[in-house]
């Protein structure tokens, strides 16, 4: 089973694009704190490249920006490539199945969340019900 759960902050604004067939794809960086500090009490951080597809990609691009806190559920994908100098390299990517937004509306500096959220519904007014008829049981 290849499954990963990460909670961290975006290291850059999401980059949304489309494939030739029109499928949305979004790339972003994620900084995840380790559960411990080094000997000099410096917090250790891991950096991941994350790819989201389709509706998840559209949502991330619309609602997230550099610094946004998110929870990512997905899988690890390893790819091999050759750099410009001809060196063989290996990259580890996270393919996001789900992205949950953890930054609150109040923490967002712009009004993207407010404009996308539906208006709160008014609670119905309850009226007193006075029925003096006999109860049939």
Automatic annotation (TrEMBL):
Keyword Ribonucleoprotein appears in the UniProt entry: no
GO term, biological process aspect, one: DNA replication
GO cellular component term, pick one: nucleoid
Matches recorded under InterPro entries: NA-bd_OB-fold, Primosome_PriB/ssb, ssDNA-bd
GO molecular function: single-stranded DNA binding
UniProt entry tagged with the keyword Metal-binding: no
Keywords: DNA-binding
UniProt subunit comment: Homotetramer.
Descriptive protein name: Single-stranded DNA-binding protein
